[in-house]
Specification:
By secondary structure, the chain is mostly helical. The protein is built from 8 helices and no strands. The longest helix is centred in the C-terminal third of the chain and has 37 residues. It is elongated.
Length: 180
């Protein structure tokens, strides 16, 4: 079921509530209309931000809990069909693929420098995209896992690049001392 646009008024919210009660909960149209009429002045943005407690207050504990879950399903479906939702869904797949590629490449290297470079690339391919996806998707049960794993790996990538940068600065200063 499509949520009403954010610019819609309370009448469209009540019509939406009536539609989902009839179509998804098999409520009689008269009962659905009576329940939906309890929504008084809120607009679609208020419907999207309302919590389960608010739904229970407005519609009663019998209907509020089920209606809240149905609205949340529709919000999730709308997010999944949006461009950010699709990007958020598909980004981890190439990210994990690239990470596996770089890790396998690292284990096939003969020199330690090449191996560490591949591991650094793997951390960049995994960490930032996972953290990005975790922060973007508030409706996913794996949100915390994406954020934590992405931030941890990103932190290690930052450390590796910081150490590498310091090594390069040290090597450059040694070369300058030798030249002087």
């Amino acid at each position: 079921m499509t949520l009403p646009p954010l610019t819609a008024g309370p009448n469209e919210v009540r019509a939406y509530i009536t539609r989902i009660l009839v179509s998804k909960h098999d409520a009689a149209p008269e009962l659905a209309h009576r329940i939906a009429s309890q929504w008084t002045l809120g607009r679609p943005g208020d419907l999207r931000r309302a919590g389960m407690k608010y739904f229970d207050q407005v519609f009663g504990s019998d209907v509020g809990t089920f209606l809240f879950r149905t609205v949340q399903e529709d919000i999730r479906a709308e997010w999944d069909q949006s461009l950010p939702g699709m990007v958020n869904f598909w980004t981890p797949i190439p990210s994990i693929g690239l990470t596996v590629f770089f890790v396998v490449r690292a284990y096939r290297q003969t020199s330690a420098t090449s191996m560490m470079a591949s591991i650094r690339y793997a951390t960049l391919a995994f960490g930032p995209p996972m953290a990005f996806c975790g922060f973007q998707d508030g409706h996913n049960s794996f949100q915390a896992m994406k954020i934590v794993s992405g931030l941890i790996v990103s932190f290690f990538a930052f450390l590796w690049y910081a150490v590498r940068f310091c090594e390069l600065l040290e090597a450059r200063s040694k070369e300058e001392k030798k030249a002087a």
